[in-house]
Amino acid sequence: MQDFSGLGLAAPLLLALNKLGYTAPTPIQAQAIPHLMTGRDLVGIAQTGTGKTAAFALPILHHLITHPQQAPRGGARVLVLSPTRELASQIAESFRSLGSEMQLSVQVVFGGVPHGAQIRALQRGLDVLVATPGRLVDHLDAGAAHLGKTEFFVLDEVDQMLDLGFVKSIRRVVGTLPKRRQNLFFSATMPTEIAKLAGELLNDPVQVSVTPVAKTADRVNQQVLFVETHRKRDVLVDLLSDAGMARTIIFTRTKRGADKVTQHLDATGIAAVAIHGNKSQNQRERSLAAFRAGRVRALVATDIAARGIDIDGVTHVVNFDLPEVAEAYVHRIGRTARAGAEGVAISLCDGAERDLLRNIERLTRLNLPTQDRRAAPGSPEAKPPARSATSPRPQQDRRPGAGPSRPQERGFGARSAGAPGSNGPSASRPRYNSARPQGERRRGDRDAIQPA
Prior knowledge:
There is one protein chain. It is built from 14 helices and 16 strands. By secondary structure, the protein is of the alpha/beta class. The protein folds into two domains: 206 residues, P-loop containing nucleotide triphosphate hydrolases (Rossmann fold), CATH 3.40.50; 163 residues, P-loop containing nucleotide triphosphate hydrolases (Rossmann fold). The strands form three sheets. It has a seven-stranded parallel sheet with strand order 3-4-2-5-6-1-7, sandwiched between helices. A seven-stranded parallel sheet has the order 10-11-9-12-13-8-14, sandwiched between helices. The longest helix is centred in the N-terminal third of the chain and has 15 residues. It is elongated and about 75 Å long. This is ATP-dependent RNA helicase RhlE.
């Protein structure tokens, strides 16, 4: 397929693509769009940064143009579910850009922001609704959303949905959809769980795959530096002294770790911002905007940003901590080498992370090049700094019956008694719970994503 005109897309879409500078479809677009134009259900497998969003947005928009009708009040003609707020915003923006030459109503629904504007948009009716599962279930439970006239149902990053325990929320949403609809599943990997879910929810789907499972980006130069834990921050500063690391994303395992790395970089004169689950939506958007605009060189993130953050020109990805789930490595390094560019991924690995490194190499079927950056034995740098005798210790709650001072956390998908969808007692009418975590849960200090 040489250009988009050969796909039979409507003229307004070809005009928008031309204005955006897109001339030729990517492999996933060239293979998926013809099937979707004929109304087939589809499972699309492609690594991050290959144009999956346009692969499903273009044929959907073509249908909206060629089959015009009023958007259903309280619902939408198109529903796209996304695991994170950032990815949901990015998908909605892609729909707006590709549909710039048509009258299109698009709304993003996710947690961490007031409900009012979302409810008003639903009441008017939408062409395209992009949502995270938790907040959409809130609207369903409160009677603000009605999805019985949805024509297209899209699940994006399905493997992450399943990894993060979204199955119940997905089934809750699917139960409100009409049986006659077109289903589209897009993902970067294809574990057996996705095949099982596709078999349940899709009707005779065609599968399109343009990359092997768990294949890392071809244009990423990957390397591993062996270094002691206590020296990682100093090694990171040394790496960032290279002016070639002009736009770098640094991944940490915990929210607290992300803040500490950011503070350390700022203290050494390297402009950095952090993004993780303890940041408000406005803080996260400001940090991303500063990074996109080049006002800061480094974005320090937990795995909340491992997928869905599409930022042009990311030169380097640094795994300050190796991920506990090997698949996350693939998505982390996919933040660089996008849109045909090349990139570099550097992983800092201490002795306790060797098993994690082996898991990554098994998954990717690669022997990653390594370099020993450990301090020479006997040198002062080889020993971690001693803990001060006056260092404050965690305070415990001494009230009768009180447990540890750290609050107990709920598991994946947990809801308090009485919340919508729980098995416990509830009020006669579901109420919005604006205080519940939106997008993340806490396991200790780790930043894992929950239905938002």
